[in-house]
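quick q for whoever's on today - can somebody do inverse folding on this one?? i tried earlier but teh output was garbage lol. tokens:
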């Protein structure tokens, strides 16, 4: 694990070098970036003497079923900027496994995020980072740090575009059990008016099983090439390689590789139809078994810039479970990936449902997973905003495609509510309540990878400093 730690911190060191360089190149600050609202969407500054700046949103022209998640488009104000944020918070948690469910444990958290974007005539670079450290008052063995860094470079020509990206994270526990507060987003990055676009989840190693307090790191590298055959038709191919590693040998490390290729047809500037083929491979270091998948999906996408984005893709999955001892097994599954993003006035809504084969989140050698996610952000007034998030995951083991009582099943859920109060242009206070819970059909298992997780509550209050976005040349 020493070499792994050196690799992780090497990446973060590169990010740390990028930040001062971006800061040194800043000229005039821009902003503030208000949450999208009916009155504030087109205003970049309200200081005396400043003139409002018209904000336009560029449409999302990438493949509907490609390596990036479908988006509402990108604000032109998000070009050539650097945006930092620092948070400090105090929280109280229950049911951390060190005592009874009524035990209270206090912790302090210092975290930060930044977003850097740099655009040229036919290329663009972006870097998004979120991370920090947490110190427990009575459980010093839980003191830890967490980091998430996403890099993306795009090149474009008249008919073609190329995207290269990488996402690496180092976490002390599963994302499904982490807090969803404005000050401690362990797996998210700072986002300006929804301009950050995430990678398609099929390329990211899944961690939807709550697997106790165990440090782990994951890395996913993706590449995508799109070629336009004409005004409305295009071809694309995307590939990725991901790894998930744990510090505890009781958990199952995993490697995954994915390749998808597809054809899409823009029907009327808003609706898109397409067909794609996907090849997936899961391997588990130290274990002889593996999984190979062949997937055919039909897809539909509808995009209204800065208002709504919908993606639905589904079809059969032909899977083979390779086991040198038990022999090979074959089975047909089904796959469905559906995502909705909707923006109206002062509210942003996101809903996603995915049913697919995954790597098993470190506790299963492959899983059939159902994952539901919900996010809602509402600007109540100029001072107050509300954020709600939640999720549910059901993971069923694929060991030799068994269907009897021996099949391991995990049901995990989390929820969070956040209230934020602006204390000026560059400061805010926030309060968050979140909970997580997990059940399993396993009985009499004492390992952290298979135990039930009682209802865990977290109350957090904190302050955030978020200076106005800085324009860089």
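ok took a stab at it. sequence:
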């Amino acid at each position: 694990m020493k070499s792994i730690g050196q690799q992780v911190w090497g990446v973060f060191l590169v990010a740390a070098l990028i930040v001062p360089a971006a800061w040194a190149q800043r000229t005039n600050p821009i902003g503030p970036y208000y949450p999208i609202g009916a009155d504030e969407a087109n205003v970049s500054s309200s200081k005396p003497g400043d003139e409002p700046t018209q904000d336009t949103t560029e449409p999302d022209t990438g493949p509907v079923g490609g390596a990036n998640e479908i988006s509402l488009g990108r604000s032109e104000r998000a070009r050539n900027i650097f945006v930092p944020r620092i948070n400090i918070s105090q929280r109280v948690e229950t049911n951390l496994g060190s005592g009874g469910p009524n035990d209270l444990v206090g912790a302090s958290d210092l975290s930060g995020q930044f977003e850097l974007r740099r655009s040229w005539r036919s290329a663009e670079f972006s870097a998004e980072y979120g991370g920090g450290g947490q110190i427990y008052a009575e459980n010093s063995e839980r003191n830890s740090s967490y980091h998430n860094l996403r890099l993306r470079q795009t090149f474009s020509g008249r008919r073609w575009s190329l995207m290269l990206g990488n996402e690496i994270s180092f976490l002390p526990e599963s994302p499904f059990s982490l807090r969803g507060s404005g000050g401690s987003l362990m797996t998210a990055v700072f986002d300006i008016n929804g301009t950050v676009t995430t990678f398609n989840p099929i390329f990211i190693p899944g961690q939807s099983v709550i697997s106790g307090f165990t440090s782990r790191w994951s890395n996913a590298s993706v590449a995508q090439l799109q070629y336009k055959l004409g005004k409305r038709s295009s071809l694309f191919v995307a590939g990725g390689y991901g790894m998930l590693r744990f510090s505890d040998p009781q958990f199952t490390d995993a490697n995954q590789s994915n390749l998808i290729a597809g054809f899409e047809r823009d029907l009327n500037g808003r609706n898109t139809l397409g067909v794609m083929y996907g090849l997936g491979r899961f391997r588990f270091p130290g274990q002889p078994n593996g999984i190979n998948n062949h997937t055919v999906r039909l897809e539909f996408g509808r995009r209204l810039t800065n208002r709504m984005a919908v993606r639905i893709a589904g079809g059969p999955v032909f899977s083979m479970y390779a086991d040198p001892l038990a022999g090979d097994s074959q089975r047909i599954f089904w796959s469905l990936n559906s995502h909705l993003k909707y923006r109206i006035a002062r509210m942003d809504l996101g809903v996603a449902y995915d049913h697919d084969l995954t790597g098993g989140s470190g506790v299963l050698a492959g899983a059939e997973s159902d994952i539901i996610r919900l996010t809602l952000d509402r600007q109540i007034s100029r001072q107050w905003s509300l954020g709600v998030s939640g999720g549910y995951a059901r993971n069923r083991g694929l060991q030799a495609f068994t269907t009897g009582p021996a099949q391991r099943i995990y049901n995990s859920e989390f929820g969070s509510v956040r209230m934020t109060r602006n204390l000026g242009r560059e400061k805010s206070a926030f309060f968050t309540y979140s909970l997580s819970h997990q059940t399993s059909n396993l009985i009499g298992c004492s390992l952290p990878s298979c135990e039930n997780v009682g209802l865990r509550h977290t109350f957090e209050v904190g302050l955030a400093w978020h200076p106005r976005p800085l324009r860089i040349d």
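fwiw Residues 2-472 form a domain with the Porin fold (CATH 2.40.160). also The longest helix spans residues 2-24. so keep that in mind when u check it
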